[in-house]
Amino acid sequence: MQIIADPKQIQSLAQTWKKSGPVAFVPTMGCLHEGHLALVKKAQSLGKKVIVSIFVNPLQFGQGEDFERYPRPFDADVTKLRELNVDALFAPTTSHLYPEGFETRVLVGKLADHLCGKSRPGHFNGVATVCLKLFSATLTDVAVFGEKDFQQVRILEQLVADFNLELEIVRHPIVREADGLALSSRNRYLSAEERQWALRISQALKAAREMAITRQAVSVGEIIQGVKTTLSEVPLVVDYLEVASEHRLSPIAHYESLQQIPLPRLFIAVKCGSTRLIDNLRLRESSS
Ligand code: AMP
Asked: Which residues line ligand 1 (CB under 6 A)?
């Protein structure tokens, strides 16, 4: 596996590779877990060559967020990627991606007005800006993103459509621990007790889906109330808890019946101790 920091260098490598088949790309911030590795395996099934990037992007962190303390176990990450036979690791420094004089940013529209975009102003502008840079450095034909960050993948699909980028975005389902907790690089911040509290999130989402499937006429408010009740037994602090349609991502009013919503998905963000956790689950396959 080649390890490359310079965008020009990865670009010329990708140029050569593209001649013999598609280049598949998996962007990450490192601290790799089985969720990331599942994306890499998916990329290997889609591309002739696979590039993974590791870059903790300062542009997508707000004031007081965990940019400084974000875990960066680089050597362990390299070992994991080598074991999977990844073709190249693109690991730029901040000045490689944002050199002196860099000043152009992507401005995301309405899709960033809700959910994480509302709690983290400017976050998705930072994500879209870095992804556009990463796509152009790696000459991506197909990029794989996890549904763990569902709003992110929707926004990047929109970026690709809006800017006529010649690449395909592929969604990968959320990878969970056996007990249901969604894998996240931030789970390592959790104490044993906090991890037990965090388990309630996926349990509540699953119970909500049961309710959505078994009760045809259930309202959004009843779904939300069910989740709140499950979570109320542990000291999680809810940042947002919303049902939204997968396409628009704007929260649906509580009085609405779930039947009216195309592809309803439940989205949640909580503070578990000092750690922010997110999760989501599709409630029904279709609105009927
Ligand atoms: P991150 O390193 O957190 O920026 O994540 C890099 C990519 O991995 C993103 O596309 C995430 O959505 C994806 N990802 C992170 N955790 C999971 C998970 N548990 N299941 C599936 N994809 C994930």
From this structure: 28-29, 35-36, 39, 145-146, 148-149, 172, 174-175, 182-185
